[in-house]
Amino acid sequence: MLSKKEYTSQSVHRVDAACKVTGAALYPGDITPPGLLHGKVLFSHQPHARMLSINLEKARAVPGVVAIFTAADVPVNEYGLIMPDQPVLVGLGSTPYAAVSRWEGDQVAVIVAETELAAAQARALIEIEWEPLPVITDMFEAMRDEVIIHEDKQTNVLKHYKIRKGDMAAGWAAADVVVESEYHLPYQEHAYLQPEAGLGYIDEEGRVTVEIAGQWTHEDQKQVAHALGLPLDQVRIIYPAIGGAFGGREDMSLQIVLGLAAMRLHQMGIDRPVRIIWTRAESMIGHHKRHPAVVRTRWGATKEGKITAVAADVYMNSGAYAYTSTKVLGNFHLMVTGPYVIPNARIDSYTITTNNVPGGAFRGFGGPQGAFVAENQMNKLAEVLGMDPVELRLRNLLREGDLMTVQTPILPGVSLVEVVQECARVSGWYGEMPPARPFTAIQSLPPNPQALRRGRGFACAFKNVGYSFGAPESCDAIIELHGGAEIERVVLRHAAAEVGQGTHTALRQMTAAAVGVDVDLVELVMSDTAVTANSGSVSASRMTFMAGNAIRGAAEDALAKWHNEDRPAIAHYHYVPPRTQMYHPETGKCEPNFSYGYVAEVVEVTVDTETGHIYLDRVVCVDDVGKAINPLLVQGQIEGAVVQAFGYAVMEDLQVRNGRIQNPYLSQYLIPGIRDIPARVDGIIMEVADPQGPWGVRGMAEMPYLPLAPAIVAAVHDATGIWFDEIPLLPFRVLEKLRKP
Q: Closest by alpha carbon to 109, among 67, 171, 52?
């Protein structure tokens, strides 16, 4: 038996490994109970239009159709994670604003039938008359407010944050060099393996029950209950196996419409389960993306390499609805100046409503966009100053007690200097770049060796843990101790979603360590609102940190009961971390977060100057995770984040024109395949304990993503002498720049 301490630093097998390898794990689309009905959702396919009429007569006449539900069937036709600004179903007969489609992925009707074919045939026969409205897709046009997309609002600017620190005039006067740039950042599709799917039914206790893939069972429960006009305890959410998330499942997809179908069918005397499975194209049209953005920024520094002033204007495209845009903008706003001491700062950040696909949570949550700007600016400053990029960073990195741009000190436990130095050391930054591994081309013809150029680049970042900026934050855990003279069985009840990252395995390890038993004695009851308490979302790199603290509290209380002969000993612990604060509306002053993780990366690339292709030869990624509960799972997070960020930087190109996605298939929207991924990823785990974290844990799942794109841009510049201020670095884009006189 491993010691209590060892369970928080061992690469034990994943609890879900065997069932996923053998195919025994049931994903939502695999669940096929008796009497199953099949559903289809009708999208509006209208970026901006008002419904004038809807005719269901032909659709209802299709053999096998059981029911069709529209806006008039939704008791409270509104929802939204940040604010309830979106109708569940666009249409007539509910709220005054529900008749307007503001995005092509707005849902209009739910068709329930005996077969998928019948439901699809009926969907195609629904007749709708639309009044076209102006389609506003450009952020800067939207900011003129000539057309207000949400009729109940005064402006299309959803949120404006400010930072005002120091004396900008003095900062510019002290600068010997100034670098000014405009950056353009793209959409990114989550492309998780399992498209949206779910099952709705009435359970044995009469509750509306939805089995679906998500990231926060209790928030799903809250939103479904609100839209259906039901008490919270009359709605149950269960997460089966989940095929990836990356933030893409934080907002609603099928949760409410499945609950609506189950409830309305029950009221019709039909107690049969309903299953809906989206196609890949429906998934790509129907859920949010990483926010695109434009940033105009100016950085000044002395000839000795000390930053004197930073100004930035951030414009982030929210799309048609809020989703998590205000929160993503909060991170972007903080991280657009990087992990550096900035004595004088003027930052204005906006998220703007348009008729495009909504932007929402995606791994890094505004951090990748902010890091792209800050790290490119630092690398450009290094070039202008004739200074090594690592040395420039070491002269400006935040250290213990330093003030951030929000005019409060960085939290204790900051390890930026150590992380940057370790990355430089491991990568051999100060020596000659090692030769590339044998080159494998992904194009049909081998490259011309004379056209290949090699380069390397550096970038670093920091990432918040938790929701931040004053959002209520907590996590619950329930632990049961069973047995006679000795503890024979430990049960952890917890709502955390397992979206592929290994959370359930880490929670089991932490429970064993906290109770002091063999990990094999720990049983998990997970992700079911009927039997678990609120864990909060599996997002914001928060779950290991939050759940670990909740587990430690529950274990301590349960052990106290056990030693007092109270058996089975059951304890419920509600963990609340230190409070955070929202930005001051004029100055931006706040205490934004309660924990951070720190990361640095070096990349080595080969650029084919004849084709414009970029090959990632090596990535060195150093992450301070505080404590690696399961080192192998941490390595998996590093490698997965690097591959996903490589797609963002180099190849993923979502085309949205006039509010419509042009390439909603993985045959057209390309993500990294086995021949694209880096030849070598050296994931280096550092463990500088976080003072607030359980066993010193920091959240880490998003960190390796943040610096990769700017590190690649720096490496391509090293190879070619050209800076790229827009990603992805598609071959035609690279060639255009290379061939410019």
A: 67
